[in-house]
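quick q for whoever's on today - can somebody do inverse folding on this one?? i tried earlier but teh output was garbage lol. tokens:
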């Protein structure tokens, strides 16, 4: 009865905030494409930034090699495009063959 019981407890792995907030490289590329299409539709970066409620650097930086699009930018782009965030992140929006200005898909005849 004099034995002391040892309780083993594994420490939970804490995921750093940076890892949780980052998009995969494929998702980043899909967000870049969506932002480029929206930039064409809204008539330039300043107008798109105003419509999204962000500064112009939030649009310019992810489109250049030095910046990464964030999940927040993907959410704002999805709201502006009227589609789900999943459609933006998976690359389903804009559809293949769609006009970048109006969104109309050319019919195959």
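ok took a stab at it. sequence:
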């Amino acid at each position: 009865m004099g034995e002391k019981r040892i309780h083993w407890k594994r420490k939970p792995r804490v995921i750093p905030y940076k890892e949780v907030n980052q998009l995969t490289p494929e998702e980043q590329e899909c967000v870049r494409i969506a932002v480029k299409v929206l930039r064409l539709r809204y008539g330039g970066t300043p107008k798109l930034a105003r419509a999204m409620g962000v500064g112009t650097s939030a649009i310019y930086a992810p489109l250049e090699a030095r910046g990464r699009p964030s999940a927040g930018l993907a959410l704002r782009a999805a709201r502006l495009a009227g589609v789900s965030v999943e459609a933006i992140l998976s690359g389903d929006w804009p559809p293949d063959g769609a006009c970048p200005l109006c969104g109309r898909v050319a019919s195959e005849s």
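fwiw The chain has a mean pLDDT of 88. also The chain has six helices and no strands. so keep that in mind when u check it
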